[in-house]
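User: My instructor asked us to take a sequence, write out its structure as tokens, and then describe one feature of it. I'm not sure where to start. Here is the sequence I was given:
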Amino acid sequence: MRAAVGDRLLVHGATVGERDRHGEIIEVRGPAGAPPYVVRFEDGHTGLVFPGPDAVVVPSQRERR
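Assistant: Let's start with the prediction itself. The structure tokens for your sequence are:
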């Protein structure tokens, strides 16, 4: 998994009824875009995340151009 500042992190709910969490990657602490990431989630919570297999990095719009 590789990410850059500004990319989005989508963490799928682990159980039925648990909603997905979305956040913006505001800092990459691993080498060459590797985890861990500091993520600001949609509820305002900011935390250090070591993404598991239930997480997906969505590239920012500026990379798609």
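For the description part of your assignment, you could build on this observation: Strands lie at 8-11, 21-28, 37-41, 46-49, 55-58. Try explaining in your own words what that tells you about the chain.
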